[in-house]
């Protein structure tokens, strides 16, 4: 729901059941043609491989190579972020496949890379044939056969460690709860770079690798992404949270990223969107504030209630600190006294600004 496919985009593959060939494609292309030597003359199939691998076309290709929802360079938005951009489509003309729904056999072994591993695809299953309307919407046509393949993502197939972590702070406690040490594993500890290292001025240091290997800034948590949740202010009917997302990877800009937080005062899920999170460095962070109306039945600052239950970055769950380390209320504090203190501090700050 909240995981999108970013550059360099999706790659889709499968195995033909018989000796099918792809005569032509619009909206996408295969990465290899394969051996088409048995087809004589100038009319050659687009792909003769038993296991074709398909990639999306880039934006701006000629109009006669396009269809609806194609040609995005494989970049697909998440459904929760932008349903209109969450679809990618292409069209294939297949030969040697049979002429009826009894002679056409289902392809096997579907694979989806987006843009790396993590997806596991189930078998193709036959579903009711897709019905199409003519442009004047007065006539229906029906596909010869329609099948569905469902691919499920698991971040644990990619790595046994998370790829983001969360830290906490609050206005009512000077303690900052950091991300747990080695939240994302410390396997990159020997290859990380200190923020003041002279290596950062080297040409090509920020160039992405084909294997997507990160170049991380040295931290105790060793995560590419850290999310910081700060309980900033308390009012009579509202409370305010400031969130900051920091990128510690020198080789990756995050485009169209999503941040999802689960909290009882957020109607379960609230989404945060931003076009670009820059690579590690001075500009490698974004910040946002959220003003929430208090739920009178559940609102409290006690026992870590003000902090999220789960946080997801780009659809992957981030590691949270253990609950016993959350910033706690002072022993004698109450919600009312905290609210009065916060209002007094705000008034004092305003007075300073006014005098200045």
TrEMBL record:
UniProt-annotated location(s): Cell membrane
InterPro entries: COB_C (IPR056900), COBRA_pln (IPR006918)
Keyword Transcription attached: no
Main location: membrane
Signal peptide, first to last residue: none
Domain of life: Eukaryota
Ranges annotated as spanning the membrane: none
Positions of the COBRA C-terminal domain: 163-273, 283-327
Single GO BP term: cellulose microfibril organization
Key words of the record: Glycoprotein, GPI-anchor, Lipoprotein, Membrane, Signal
Example of a GO cellular component annotation carried by this entry: plasma membrane
Pfam families in the cross-refs: COB_C, COBRA
Membrane topology: Lipid-anchor; GPI-anchor
Family: Belongs to the COBRA family.
Stated name of the protein: Glycosyl-phosphatidyl inositol-anchored, plant
Organism: Cynara cardunculus var. scolymus (Globe artichoke)
């Amino acid at each position: 729901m909240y995981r999108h496919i970013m550059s360099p985009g999706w790659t889709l593959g499968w195995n033909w059941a018989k000796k099918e060939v792809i005569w032509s494609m619009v909206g996408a292309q295969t990465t290899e043609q394969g051996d088409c030597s048995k087809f004589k003359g100038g009319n050659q199939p687009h792909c003769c491989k038993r296991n074709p691998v398909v990639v999306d076309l880039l934006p701006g290709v000629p109009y006669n190579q396009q269809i609806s929802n194609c040609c995005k360079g494989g970049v697909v938005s998440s459904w929760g972020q932008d349903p209109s951009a969450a679809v990618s489509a292409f069209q294939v003309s297949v030969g040697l496949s049979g002429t009826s729904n009894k002679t056409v056999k289902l392809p096997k072994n579907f694979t989806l890379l987006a843009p790396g591993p993590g997806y596991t695809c189930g078998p193709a299953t036959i579903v009711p044939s897709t019905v199409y309307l003519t442009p004047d919407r007065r006539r229906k046509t029906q596909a010869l056969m329609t099948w569905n393949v469902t691919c499920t993502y698991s971040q644990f197939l990619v790595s046994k460690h998370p790829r983001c972590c969360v830290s906490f702070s609050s206005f009512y406690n000077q303690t900052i709860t950091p991300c747990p040490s080695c939240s994302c594993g410390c396997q990159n500890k020997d290859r990380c770079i200190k923020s003041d290292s002279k290596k950062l001025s080297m040409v090509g240091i920020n160039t992405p690798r084909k294997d997507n290997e990160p170049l991380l800034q040295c931290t105790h948590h060793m995560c590419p992404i850290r999310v910081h949740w700060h309980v900033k202010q308390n009012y009579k009917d509202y409370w305010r949270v400031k969130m900051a997302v920091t990128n510690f990877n020198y080789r990756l800009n995050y485009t169209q990223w999503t941040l999802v937080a689960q909290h009882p005062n957020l109607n379960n899920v609230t989404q945060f969107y931003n076009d670009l999170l820059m690579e590690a460095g001075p500009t490698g962070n974004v910040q946002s504030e959220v003003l929430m109306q208090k739920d009178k039945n559940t609102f409290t600052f006690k026992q870590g209630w003000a902090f999220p239950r789960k946080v997801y970055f780009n659809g992957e769950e981030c590691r949270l600190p253990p609950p016993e380390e959350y910033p706690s209320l002072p022993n004698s504090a109450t919600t009312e006294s905290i609210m009065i203190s916060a209002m007094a501090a705000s008034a004092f700050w305003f007075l300073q600004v006014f005098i200045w």
